[in-house]
């Protein structure tokens, strides 16, 4: 069984879609191929990988309530290719959005289901994730925290002569547990999706989210964007101003 | 301001230009959104990609009546129109709020507008249902008080329906 995972995020690196896709891939058995789809130059390569695959997993961000525009021409090519070859293929979708509610991915799911209908391939369902970007930020933070734990261990060794102090690693363990607690919905639904992929079963449509009350998530998102906007200078360039078009 | 976005051709633009303040032909000759959010965090209401869509969010944000004519692609917008919409998220701000009991971004322009979408091409019944949901969701995101989706056969009537 060959499964092709397609990361459809336009981002070059550190995409939430890519991370969630790789997380799902950990629990999928058999031959696996991970592909990045950003530009038309990727189309033929990805299509050739799909040619001998039994399952395709699309992982993508929600853009303006739908599929990112750069993916649509690829879907059209894939539709024609599948119809031409009378291709037997199982399709699963992982969609994530910056809002907290996973349910906001529903139009995207329907668009992908309609794509499968037109292509004569099997729609096996999808997982819609709310706040997936936070999971992505947290895994980056975990790497930073690992560095801090290593640094503390080293400093403890130099200053106090303790070769392996336990406390930095207890702190790091707590941080890992916090991330797992916040992401438990995503991880559980992800494993369930992987089980369905392994068994070639229909998954249906399921929606999950980061395990935070929405008002706390909104507060975190606002703080995150404020900090980024201060560093990138947006707050000093008419952050909320009603700018008029300069080009007529 | 009354704005028309369409993916037909320049002849269609000429045909419709008297009825609108802005007619935008989505010709697809621009780059797709890179998901960098710099139109929120670095150069507000300006896309960092320097092409014809760089200030598109300013036009869409100030549209009291937004009319979109698009070919059906699986129950969603055509790539050229979707690209234009993806590149226009700067019409909102990075700050979040609740609308329709769900999380959404606050609006930069806060114009009580209407959205009408005319869909052309072959549309299945299932895709029609997707369209209705999609336009409803778009209207909530764009803060539109009124929205409508219509299915047209412009292939049959090249002069265009009364939009």
Any overview of this molecule?
The complex is a heterodimer of chains A (248) and B (163). Chain A starts with a strand and ends in a 16-residue tail after the last helix. Chain A has helices spanning 16-25, 43-51, 72-85, 106-119, 132-160, 167-182, 184-199, 214-232, and strands at residues 2-7, 31-36, 55-61, 90-97, 122-130, 204-209. Chain A has a single domain (2-234), classed as 3-Layer(aba) Sandwich (Rossmann fold). Chain A is of the alpha/beta class and 248 residues long. A 6-stranded parallel β-sheet of chain A has the order 2-1-3-4-5-6, sandwiched between helices. Chain B is α/β, with parallel strands linked by helices. Chain B has one domain (2-109, 122-151). Chain B is 26% helix and 26% strand. Chain B contains 5 helices and 7 strands; from the N terminus they run βαβααβαβββαβ. Chain B has helices at 10-16, 38-41, 56-61, 79-86, 125-141; strands spanning 2-6, 22-25, 65-71, 92-99, 102-107, 114-120, 146-151. In chain B, strands 2-1-3-6-7 form a 5-stranded parallel β-sheet, sandwiched between helices. A two-stranded antiparallel sheet of chain B has the order 4-5. In chain B, α1 links the parallel β1 and β2. The model of chain B has no long low-confidence stretch (mean pLDDT 93). Chains A and B meet through α3, α4 and α8 of A and α2, α3, α4, β4 and β5 of B.
């Amino acid at each position: 069984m060959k499964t092709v995972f397609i990361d459809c995020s336009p981002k070059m690196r550190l995409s939430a879609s890519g991370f969630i896709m790789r997380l799902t891939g950990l629990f999928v058995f058999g031959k696996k191929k991970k592909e990045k789809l950003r530009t038309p130059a990727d189309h033929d390569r990805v299509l050739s990988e799909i040619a001998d695959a039994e399952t395709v997993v699309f992982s993508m961000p929600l853009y303006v309530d739908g599929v990112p525009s750069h993916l649509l021409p690829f879907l059209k090519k894939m539709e024609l290719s599948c119809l031409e070859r009378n291709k037997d293929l199982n399709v699963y979708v992982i969609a994530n959005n910056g809002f907290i509610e996973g349910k906001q991915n529903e139009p995207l799911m329907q668009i992908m289901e309609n794509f499968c209908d037109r292509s004569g391939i099997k729609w096996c369902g999808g997982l819609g994730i709310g706040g997936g970007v936070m999971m992505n930020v947290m895994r980056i933070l975990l790497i930073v925290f690992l560095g801090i734990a290593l640094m503390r261990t080293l400093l403890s060794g130099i200053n106090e002569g303790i070769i392996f102090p336990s406390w930095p690693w207890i702190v790091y363990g707590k941080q890992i547990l916090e991330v797992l607690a916040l992401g438990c919905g995503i991880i559980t639904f992800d494993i369930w999706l992987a089980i369905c992929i392994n068994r070639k079963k229909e998954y249906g449509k399921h929606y999950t989210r980061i395990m935070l009350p929405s008002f706390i998530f909104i507060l975190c998102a606002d703080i995150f964007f404020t900090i980024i906007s201060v560093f990138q200078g947006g707050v000093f360039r008419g952050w909320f101003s009603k700018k008029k078009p300069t080009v007529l | 301001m009354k704005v028309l976005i369409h993916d037909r051709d320049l002849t269609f633009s000429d045909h419709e230009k008297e009825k609108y303040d802005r007619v935008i032909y989505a010709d697809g000759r621009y780059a797709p959104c890179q998901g960098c959010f710099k139109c929120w965090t670095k150069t507000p209401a300006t896309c960092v990609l320097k092409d014809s869509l760089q200030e598109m969010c300013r036009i869409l944000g100030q549209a009291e009546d937004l009319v979109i004519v698009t070919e059906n692609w699986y129950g969603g917008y055509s790539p050229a129109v979707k690209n234009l919409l993806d590149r226009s998220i700067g019409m909102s701000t990075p700050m979040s709020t609740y609308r329709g009991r769900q999380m959404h971004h606050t609006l930069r322009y806060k114009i009580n507008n209407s959205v009408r979408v005319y869909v052309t091409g072959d549309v299945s019944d299932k895709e029609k249902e997707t369209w209705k949901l999609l336009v409803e969701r778009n209207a909530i995101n764009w803060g539109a008080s009124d929205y409508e989706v219509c299915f047209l056969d412009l292939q049959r009537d090249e002069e265009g329906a009364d939009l």
